[in-house]
Amino acid sequence: MSLKNHPSRLIGAVLIVLCLTTCVANPLRWPDSWVHGWLLWKVPVGSSQGQFQKIAKAEGWEVQRCWKGQMGTHWGVPPLECDSFCVVHLGHYSVGLREDVQSFWAFDEKGKLLDVCIRRSVDGP
Asked: Taking the complete model, does pTM exceed 0.70, yes or no?
């Protein structure tokens, strides 16, 4: 029983491959722990805020705002001990509803990257 003789199976196989390729090709669709690792690969811990800004611009990430002070839980991410932090919109994707992916980049008093947190938000119908 070959796929050539069963066009519906061939179409199904092609759709599965396309779906998997799309999911793997877009890091924003990855689990948060993978996105976290990918972001720290792009901007390693200890990078300066200037290096971070340069990479964010090159990647097409939207740096929405940077603040001086602690990052509290009201942002929907775990609080991080930091001197300043930046909120960055990484992008969005859709699977029925639009899902936006934001990141929160924490810096120490010397302006060096400490860590990054991920937050996802889904628009309702």
From this structure: yes
